Every structure is written in C-alpha cells, then in structure tokens.
Amino acid sequence: MGKDSRNKTLAENRKARHEYFIEESFEAGIELVGTEVKSIRAGRANLKDSYADIKNGEVFVCNMHISPYEQGNIFNKDPLRERKLLLHKQEILKLTAYTAQKGYTLIPLSLYLKNGRVKVRLSVARGKKDYDKRNDMLEKAAKRDIDREMKERSRY
Fold first, then answer.
1. What pTM was computed for the model?
2. Is residue 110 within 8 Å of 47, Cβ to Cβ?
3. Which fold has domain 8-127?
4. Would you state the pLDDT for residue 75?
5. Across the strands, what pairs with 60?
6. Which range, 66-70, 128-132, 138-142, has the best average confidence (pLDDT)?
7. Which DSSP string corresponds to 66-135?
8. Domain locations in the chain?
9. How far is Cα 101 from Cα 117, in angstroms, rounded to an integer?
C-alpha cells in the first residue's frame, strides 16, 4: 500500500488574498512537535494574523496559532511560539532580497499535507491600499453580475 501523494489542505489564510498582492510563493517544511502535528491534522490551526520573519539566515513563522492537543498533556507547547521553516539557502537569500524592499512581507497562505508531512505555502506579498481592495470588490461584483446574466440567458 503506497503513500498518498495528493495534497490535503489543513488550514488556509483566506484573508491574505484580500489584504495583499501575492508576488511569489514557496513551499516550505515546518519544524513541529508531535502533538502540534496531531492538532494540525485535527484542523486546529489558524493562520489569520501570521507572518514570517528572517532572523540570522533562518525563516520563522510568527503568530501562527496551533491549539494544544487534548491528549498531549505535558508534551504540548505554547500555541503561538515561533516555528522554524525549512527552506534551501538560495530560497532564503531570495526571500531576504524581497523583504529588503519597502512594502514586502512574508505571509503563510496555507498548511497542507504532502506525502504525510506538513508543509507551508509561504508567499512574498505587498500590502494593498484601501482603493485596491475596493477595486477588487467591484470587479468581483461585476463578474458575478455577468455570470448571473449569462446563466439567465442560457435558460431560454
């Protein structure tokens, strides 16, 4: 019986696509404790206000909340602790160059399983202004109206 190679999304940062322009994405491993993995698999992770930071040539994800595992007792860690991301040196250098530019930040988009391991989709993002968000909402509403009209016309 082989391993399941399909990706299964465990947590997603839906607000990120509304708040930021996504420039580039990277896949990263994440350093976790066993009880954290069990909690993530149970769907108890939250990426809402999380971000990544580069310290001493290493990338850490901050403010990612992983709820304590119920049966974990003494093995549970702090839910908001910094967790190290596992990336190649070239990728870290590329991320460092991006974040050195004004307005760019690192945002985790999703947590997912790949071949039984928890992975993070990390993206380089640039913050949107209020008028950008309004334009996106107007475009989305216009597309919805067009789709609705096309559906109405195809009924007759």
1. 0.73
2. yes
3. Small Protein B; Chain: A; (2.40.280)
4. 65
5. 53, 84
6. 138-142
7. EPPPGGGGGG---TT--EEEE--HHHHHHHHHHHHSTTEEEEEEEEEEETTEEEEEEEEEEEPPHHHHHH
8. 8-127
9. 32
